[in-house]
Design brief:
This protein has helices at residues 3-39, 46-67, 83-117, 132-158, 160-171; strands at residues 121-122, 129-130. It is mainly α.
């Protein structure tokens, strides 16, 4: 299995997990709303859980958004250039995206380790939520985003699909 295939499978799995997580949160929020309005009994810790979950959901979906080329990009100028120039400019943009996520991983590594070691918690209300799951999701999601940006840069620069089709055409009998 190639790195590209593995990255695609992990990205899709994490996207589905994030969607399921968000779907589950809707029931927690609904229960909190019903509890508040009908019984004057909110679900304790809803705000803390939702706050931590938003970060987790975003970073679980980042890899898929990048790999599926759904990440926001302003290409209104790039599309005016010839195709080879477009490919190079897109690859530069992908490499800058990879550098950004590399900085997140290198900058957040120590804090992530410390949050695990020291058993760090967030929140002061009814529920204290451990902060390490969000921190480690940021690390893992950023690492996958970094890999996916590198994959896109590779695909745009070297166009392996085009090379494969040319090789297939050369191998076909005349």
């Amino acid at each position: 299995m190639s790195l590209i295939t593995l990255s695609d499978k992990i990205s899709k799995f994490l996207m589905v997990a994030a969607a399921a997580w968000a779907f589950g949160l809707t029931f927690l929020i609904l229960a909190d709303i019903i509890g508040r309005s009908l019984f004057d009994q909110p679900v304790q810790g809803t705000a803390e859980i939702v706050t931590a979950s938003i970060v987790i959901i975003v970073f679980l979906q980042a890899g898929y958004a990048i790999r599926s080329r759904s990440m926001l990009k302003a290409d209104f100028l790039v599309i005016r250039f010839p195709k080879p120039v477009q490919r190079v400019l897109l690859a530069i943009g992908y490499l800058l995206g990879a550098a950004f996520f590399l900085m997140i991983v290198t900058g957040g590594w120590e804090e992530s380790v410390m949050s695990w070691v020291e058993n760090e918690f967030e929140g002061e209300g009814a529920l204290r939520v451990p902060s390490w799951p969000a921190r480690w999701t940021v690390m893992g999601g950023s690492a996958l985003a970094l890999i996916n940006y590198l994959v896109l840069a590779y695909l745009d620069i070297f166009e392996p699909e085009k090379l494969d089709s040319e090789l297939d055409a050369d191998a076909a009998p005349d």
